[in-house]
Amino acid sequence: MTEAELDADLTALLGPASASTRHFRTPITHAGVALGRFFFIQRAQAVRDGGRLQTFEFLHATFGEYLATRLAIQLIADLPNQRPALAVGPAVIGDDLAFALLSFAPLSSRQILRFVRGTAARLITDESARTGLAQLLIELHASTANRAEHRYTSYRPAPIAVAARHGIYSANLVLLIASLAGHVMASQLFPDSDDPPGAWHRKALLWRSALTEPVWTELAFALSVRHLRDGVRRDLQIRLATDPPEPREPIDPYWLYVSPASQSDDETVVWSRPYWDQISHKMDICCGTNDSVILHALEPVLDHIGATVATFLREDGTSSSAAHDLISLWLASTLDKTDGLLSLYYRCVGHLERQPTWDDQTRRRVRTLILACLKSDTTRLPEADVAELTRLLG
Q: Is the pLDDT of residue 83 over 80?
């Protein structure tokens, strides 16, 4: 960056540099003071029309990452001291400076998050202090969505939209909370929501919209989630990802759609959604590469047996869509995978028996697919089961 850009940033945060009139020397700018005190900087300069032009960069990017990390930890560690001592009513957390400095780039980039965890553990050694600070950040996350202004509006080191800054700041708060507490629940982050995982989904979409694809990928891979229930209420446990990352949880349609208020764990549950054709349209409108790749792979399924994508069965504690089970059966049958093959046949037949919402064409096509696989697997399955499956499909 240029010296003028650095000075503009520091002036926006610190106010104008004091000018002394007791001598003829040019007053030292904020940038001049900062650059003079830091040695690990590469300087490039040129003279144009008698004036000196200078640019500066760190000798290694790690210097900038470490300084950003240290500043972030210092800012959050000081937040408890920003509560007004004589405030009447709920105390307001003075996080204007934190918002100004932590709303332009996520802390998940490069090595910053590793520095965050190490610096937090080193500087905040007391476990109760870390827990209390994490709770303070949780409260701050819940309230920051209503922020309309802050003190450092002239600090603009990058041209980022206001909505994007809110997204980046909330992402950094979540990363800091997870670094301090180990994990956080979606119900803690969104205490006023009737569906915390839905609120988390909308927040994650805000983050994604605020970031370029490489930066969003870094943020996504910095986190991991577990899908839980608190009685009938869905919830998410959010934590920092391990290195190497753990395998993600399989998708559970029962968790996505159904409230288990009236069902026991061993009860068979069947449900469907009529708007399966809208799913592909919404994915197409987003024009995202990832969505389009998945949509492209599933286009044949949507074209031939689209209703199976949004029809579900929960049996023996396992839930899945008909499309999921039909694809699994086809792959297991074709690739000579015998483990679980018989149970897949009965599960696919179960879909066929329990889905009265399918039209005749879809039912005929699903039956044809199962019979085609069964024909090639006759010698791999018990004779009695082949006869029973043939009877059920007849």
A: no
Do 55 and 66 lie in one domain? The reply is: no
Mean pLDDT of the chain: 88
Tokens 């690990």, residue located: 40
Check residue 87 and give its pLDDT.
57
What contacts 11, CB < 8 A, 6 or more positions away? 17, 30
State the total domains in the chain: 3
pTM of the entire predicted model? 0.86
DSSP line for 174-205: HHHHHHHHSEEEHHHHSTT-S-HHHHHHHHHH
Of 218, 249, 280, the last residue of a domain is 249
Pairing of β 233-240 and β 269-272: unpaired
**Residue 231's pLDDT band (cuts 50, 70, 90):** confident
Q: Is residue 234 part of a domain?
A: yes
Confirm if 222 and 241 have CB atoms less than 8 A apart.
yes
Whether residue 244 is contained in a domain is answered as yes
What one-character DSSP code corresponds to residue 245?
P
